[in-house]
Specification:
Elements (H helix, E strand, L loop, with lengths): L2 H11 L9 E6 L6 H8 L9 E6 L3 H10 L4 E5 H9 L8 E9 L2 E5 L1 H5 L5 H10 L5 E4 L5 H12 L9 E4 L5 H6 L5 E5 L2 H9 L2 E5 H4 L4 E8 L17 H4 L1 H6 L8 H7 L1
Parallel strand pairs: 1-2, 1-3, 6-7, 6-8
Antiparallel strand pairs: 3-10, 4-10, 5-8, 5-9
Length: about 270
């Protein structure tokens, strides 16, 4: 390693610019856009910034929210809508939050069951016709009430003349459980991030009716988030600028080189 590299590394981990906390627990959900967080830890990108990222697989977005607010997680891969919901006090306790970086643009879809596909229901107009006939009820899943997947699903249904609050039933299901719930007939379709749309097609013969880029191209879907920080004794609640400013950018810098990486280590953690 060069003298310059050693100097940069030492500046990052010592002196007044040293991080206030050396080990960070960063929560993630098993989705392809968790790769940046996971690979930052697997490949050691975090070490040159003077921190150690401990990636922690979570079971649901509600779990991510609760652990962020309790301080059990220092930061997390999170839905943009979930973070804003917490900021506004919608769907949980109201706390100030900070979005540190965007992890994903696009990469979500709306998938219909193989039963609908076999019945010729493959897109918005054919679904709207089926719902209008009222021969049976239809159930669709999203991943979190204030999350982006709920927004895409509701918008897509409404754009096709289906009232998402009256004409169909909507439920909340964690991303890794989407395919299994569709298999047993708990839902007719779902909106979720990859790889679970593709998994539904490969394992259950499902049909991807649309992708998020067709609804709102390049909008933010998931980001790296943390509760904003406050004075000692009440950590992780208020403005980032008030305390522990040195640590804020380090998970971002560590995750950035791995944005395009998705090797077997990430797939193993997601499985």
């Amino acid at each position: 390693m060069s003298i310059l590299a050693d100097t940069i590394r030492d500046k990052n981990i010592a002196g007044p610019d040293a991080p206030e906390k050396k080990t960070l627990k960063v929560g993630f959900m098993p989705l392809t856009d968790c790769a940046s967080v996971v690979m930052a830890a697997v490949k050691g990108f975090d070490e040159k910034h003077g921190i150690k990222i401990i990636p922690t697989r979570e079971s649901s977005w509600a779990s991510v929210r609760d652990k962020l607010l309790s301080g059990e997680l220092d930061a997390a891969h999170a839905l943009y809508g979930m973070v804003y919901g917490v900021q506004l006090g919608i769907g949980g306790p109201k706390r100030d939050m900070a979005i540190l970086m965007s992890l994903n643009q696009n990469g979500q879809g709306i998938t219909l069951s193989h039963q609908l596909r076999e019945a010729g229901i493959v897109d918005g107009p054919t679904l709207a016709s089926a719902v209008a006939r009222r021969e049976r009820s239809y159930t669709f899943a999203q991943t979190f009430p204030t999350g982006t997947h709920a927004m895409w699903l509701y918008y897509w249904l409404a754009a096709n003349g289906i009232n998402p609050m009256k004409d169909v039933k909507t439920i909340t299901v964690p991303p890794p459980q989407m395919v299994a719930n569709m298999r047993v007939g708990n839902m007719d379709g779902y909106c979720v991030g990859e790889p679970w749309n593709t998994v539904g097609v490969k394992r259950e013969g499902a049909h991807i009716a649309t992708v998020k880029a067709a609804i709102w191209r390049s909008s933010p879907a998931a980001g790296g988030s943390r509760p904003a920080m406050t004075e000692p004794g009440r950590k992780w609640i208020f403005s980032v600028s008030r305390a522990k400013p040195n640590i804020t950018g380090r998970p971002v810098s560590a995750s950035t080189p791995s944005n395009a990486m998705m090797p077997t280590q990430t797939a193993r953690l997601m499985s």
